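Late entry, written up from scratch paper. The run itself happened at the end of the previous shift, but nothing got recorded in the book at the time, so transcribing now.
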Amino acid sequence: MQNTAYDAEVDKNSINPGFQMFEKRVSGMFLGEILRQALLKMISADLFSGSSSTKIDTQYGIDTAAMSVIAGDNSSHLTAVGATIVSAFGIHSTNLEDRKCVKLVSDAIVRRSARLAAVAVSAVSDHTGRFAASTEEKPVDVGADGSLVEFYPRYVDMCLEACEEILGNNASKRITIGLAKDGSGVGAAL
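Output as recorded:
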């Protein structure tokens, strides 16, 4: 799996370095930290006029929920992105170029997460034979738990688009991904 400098920093500073590498690239628990690592590098290259903040300088100081707000802003001036930079990142002054950079990087981090999740969904669907037996009327049903599936704009759509690229054959309509609350609790009970 491709490892970026930001992934390496997240892994190195985690409680379990070298383990759960897939989760550290896909899970909402880690995406805010990947963004924070990228912002630190971008600040050294003059993002926010080179100014940082306590939130950006603190491990896990950026929550993935802020990335959901950023994803939902498609306005010409990225007003919600600017408000998020102020409230969630602790930066008090931004310009449009700063907001565009933050949106581009944040969206790319989550798009990669969705595409990696799609690899797992596609592989299991294909390997088990479920995909070959599926139709649009009787799709492969995938249950997922987590904030990305529940709250992130278009996350499931991005996953299904990637499934289509991987499997073809109308996979985006032959696989459904739905919210399965407390999936790990149910699995442990079974």
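The longest helix spans residues 96-127.
(Scratch paper discarded after transcription.)
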